Amino acid sequence: SPKMAPSPELLQDLLKRSQQPEVAQALLDAIKGLKSDQKLPSVTLRVPRPQSGSNAPHSNYVYDLVLPYLLAYLHTGQQAEVMLSADPFVAFPTANFLISKGFKVVRETNDALAKRSSVAPLTLAARSQSKEEVLKWLEDVTSIRSKL
């Protein structure tokens, strides 16, 4: 069954809200090299409580952390295979926007996540990440080599 290509409008709409669109764009470009039957593994993206730094309510760093992965799953038609789990203390003003675009977003403590899922999540603990980091993730899960 041919997979549903995501609408370019949706990808652009998601990208244009990002403070770091180049990181998400790098992953999106790399994932276009996937064979059409290659699938990404189901994943829970976990954003833990920040260890330090401001938790200003307008801070949108969580969106930039998760966006590359969300776009990757959107691109492979596997939006249902990715879940976003954020600690209740994390400022995440775009959560409702992502939910409105069909992504699964849960606010939960570490304990709640551990009870709900036995699969180790992909924990995004940093405040930001580099292109290299997201491309390494893609390489790890698909054994695709990026041309960086």
General description of the model:
The mean pLDDT is 87. The chain has a 4-stranded parallel sheet with strand order 3-2-1-4. The protein has helices at 8-16, 21-31, 61-75, 95-100, 110-116, 131-142, and strands spanning 43-47, 82-86, 104-107, 122-123. With 148 residues, it is of the alpha/beta class. Strand 1, helix 3 and strand 2 form a beta-alpha-beta unit.
Strand content: 5-15%
Alpha carbon gap, first and last residue: 32 Å
Silhouette: globular
Going across the biggest sheet, name each strand in turn. 3-2-1-4
Gyration radius (Cα, Å) is 15 Å
- The SS-based structural class is alpha/beta
Q: How many individual β-strands? A: 4
Order of helices and strands: HHEHEHEHEH
Give the mean pLDDT. 87
Could you estimate the helical fraction of the residues in percent? 40-55%
Number of helices: 6
Poorly predicted segments: none
What secondary-structure arrangement, pairings included, does this model have?
Layout: H1 8-16, H2 21-31, E1 43-47, H3 61-75, E2 82-86, H4 95-100, E3 104-107, H5 110-116, E4 122-123, H6 131-142
Parallel strand pairs: 1-2, 1-4, 2-3
